[in-house]
Write a structure and sequence with these properties.
single chain; alpha/beta; 9-stranded mixed β-sheet; about 25% strand
């Protein structure tokens, strides 16, 4: 089936694939392409619309990404977001300049006022909160463009040339914290571009299965199975595509949550797949001994994972492909194209230079967490696997601040189990999207009984989010926090102080390291 196509031209913004996620959520197929995609190729693909992403540059800088002006002669609707808005203005004769504290520099949640006499904002409230992240602004808009939104600090928040169907917004409609942002994108797709909504997750399953079969052929595949949502869904998709050609290897690196290794083995031992459990705790802890820098931890864990898989592959026989449950937030935060690197992930930026496999297979690479869960349901996975609490590939290694020891890991495991138990007991496990504990490297004086203690501070982290690209801290009731604190301090040795992280993403990331 030939789907309607929207092209997302990537200028290196951290939210680039999230824009694509929102487009797909609206039932429209889209692809992310570099901003350097030739206009002739764009015309050949015949998209119904084009979206320019944000980016880390300023359009007036000498080496900033530019767009071919010929693109605007194709008659295809265009929506520019943040940097994308600025590149429209700069290319078509406007002027973008650095903002100052007094003139339109805006970050975070911003009250914004909209003109509703245009297709982009039609039918929406005339004001609301938008998510801003820009240090430049349009001092002069191009000829033919009307101002369609403003904020208290900036008169030029959004512009439109309705005749040419070209729109630009300085805020990010794709993130959760922009009110009615999805409705704005839907207006662009359906009212401006003429979308009919012919894209579903069922289509993705069929095409992903076909793509895996074409790539793998009759080769053998080795999958890193952690038991988390991503690797479980990846296993199901690969099983659907290639069946007995798949071997799943579960590396128990000693960095998992309480009893999780046994739970993973129990869950997957009944599946009609080849399952191998490798007990590698001593090996990983030896490699990580004395390492306190988080990026180095990630690199060590990533390389050691690959080495373990290579060894297991040799025991199994000839294995052609290594499969991973990499999803797009991992890719974005590890940096791709012109995007800035936030932190590398063990299954992306952590890969060593030499890998003893023909190729890497990552069928979930362009999906966000909510899409992965949707895919899992489409494949018939049980809810307890699809709804499993998110857990990073490096495991507790990045939730222990500073150098790792088995004692610290065991302390964190017990505290984390209590936190998760109390969240579930309070009925918050469905509304809080990710929650965990962090053993900090800070120690402080405390009093237990009549004795002085000098023990570690434990941080609680809980967030609400749908896409894991942005997140807000969860408003856990005080009485629940109190029960959590009392239990941990009384039941876990080595902790005498509990703190709660109330930072959103951005500016923080969800994980501490």
């Amino acid at each position: 089936m030939q789907h309607q196509l929207v092209l997302v031209l990537d200028f290196g913004g951290q939210y680039n694939q999230l824009i694509a996620r929102r487009v797909r959520e609206c039932g429209v197929y889209c692809e992310v392409k570099p901003y350097t995609m030739p206009v002739s190729e764009i015309a050949k693909r015949a998209p119904i619309g084009i979206i320019f992403t944000g980016g880390p540059n300023s359009v007036y800088e000498e080496n900033a990404p530019k767009i071919d002006p010929a693109l605007f002669t194709l008659g295809i609707p265009v929506l520019g977001i943040c940097y994308g808005c600025h590149i429209i203005a700069q290319t078509l004769g406007g002027r973008v300049v650095p903002a100052s504290d007094e003139t339109a520099r805006e970050y975070g949640k911003t009250r914004t006022y909209f003109s509703l006499e245009n297709k982009l904002f039609s039918g929406l409230p005339n004001q609301g909160v938008t998510w801003m992240s820009h240090g430049d602004y349009m001092e002069q808009v191009p000829e033919g463009f009307a101002l369609i939104a403003n904020s208290d600090a900036c008169p030029n928040v959004a512009v439109a040339d309705e005749a040419r169907r070209i729109y630009g917004v300085q805020f990010h409609p794709e993130v959760d914290h922009t009110e009615n942002g999805l409705a704005m994108l839907r207006n662009f797709l359906y009212s401006v571009c003429g979308a009919v909504g012919d894209w579903t997750m069922g289509d993705f399953v069929k095409e992903a299965v076909a793509a895996v079969r074409e790539k793998v052929g009759d080769g053998k595949v080795l999958l890193a199975l952690s038991g988390g949502v991503d690797s479980s869904v990846c296993a199901a998709l690969l099983a659907e595509a290639i069946g007995p050609q798949l071997t799943c290897v579960f590396v128990d690196h000693g960095l998992m949550r309480l009893n999780e290794g046994d739970e993973v083995e129990a869950a997957f031992s009944k599946w009609p797949i080849h399952f191998v459990r490798v007990n590698a705790e001593a090996r990983f802890l030896a490699k990580l001994g004395g390492v306190d820098e988080p990026e180095q931890k990630r690199k060590i864990i990533g390389e050691e994972f690959i080495r373990v898989f290579e060894e297991e592959a040799k025991k199994i026989g000839t294995v052609d492909f290594l499969a991973q449950g990499t999803i797009y937030p991992d890719v974005i935060e590890s940096g791709i194209g012109d995007a800035a690197v936030i932190k590398s992930h063990h299954n992306v930026g952590g890969l060593p230079d030499f890998v003893d496999f023909k190729e890497i297979v990552e069928p979930l690479r362009l999906l966000f967490k909510d899409e992965v869960r949707q895919l899992g349901r489409e494949l018939g996975l049980a809810d307890y696997l699809v709804e499993r609490q998110p857990f990073p590939g490096p495991g507790l290694a990045i939730r222990v601040i500073g150098a790792l020891t088995k004692e610290k890991l065991d302390t964190l495991r017990l505290a984390d189990a209590i936190f998760r138990d109390e969240i579930a007991a309070a009925g918050l496990n469905k509304s809080v999207n990710q929650y965990f504990t962090v053993l900090t490297n800070a120690r402080s004086v405390g009093v237990m009984g009549d004795g002085r203690t000098y023990d570690y501070t434990l941080a609680l982290r809980a967030v609400t989010t749908t896409d894991f690209m942005t997140a807000d801290w969860a408003r856990i009731p005080y009485e629940v926090l109190d029960r959590i604190s009392v239990r941990i301090v009384n039941e876990v040795r080595g902790i005498n102080r509990i703190v709660y992280d109330i930072t959103s993403k951005p500016p923080a990331t969800i994980e501490w390291e």
